[in-house]
Amino acid sequence: MKHAFYDSLCRQAEALLAGEDDLVAAMANFSALLNQNLEDLNWVGFYVRRGDVLVLGPFQGKVACTRIPWGKGVCGTAAATDTTQRVMDVHQFDGHIACDAASNSEIVVPVRRDGEVVAVLDIDSPSFNRFDEEDQTGLEALVRCFEKALFAQ
């Protein structure tokens, strides 16, 4: 069931991003698309790589941490290891950076250009165990749609 939902979101993202070459504009609309269609979230957005730091990019939600060191917290770990981080309880994640005390679970998916991590998509939920394997697979596919739309010129 979730597979069809994420496929539909991917098609919506492709249409939304068609012809867009500005990364900030694309990230802003992509964040809004996810925020409008995914339930039980309190933050969704991007952190963009700037050397050895992730800098806050377009997002939907409360005020957020502006800079995250490479390899630190859930976002920095996803970026440094180039792997999705799906955390059922952020309070149990060693080194978690609490930007919003209301967040209890999180998923972070690396965004790549030419095989290099250039950003991460970060999604937080006030619920514990919000993201399952189907969400991870679907969100990874959505990020691939985003990459294809923006970077496959």
UniProtKB/TrEMBL annotation:
Pfam family membership, one: GAF_2
SMART domains named among the record's database cross-references: GAF (SM00065)
PROSITE patterns recorded: UPF0067
GAF domain segment(s): 22-150
SUPFAM superfamilies: GAF domain-like
Family to which this protein belongs: Belongs to the free Met sulfoxide reductase family.
Protein name: GAF domain-containing protein
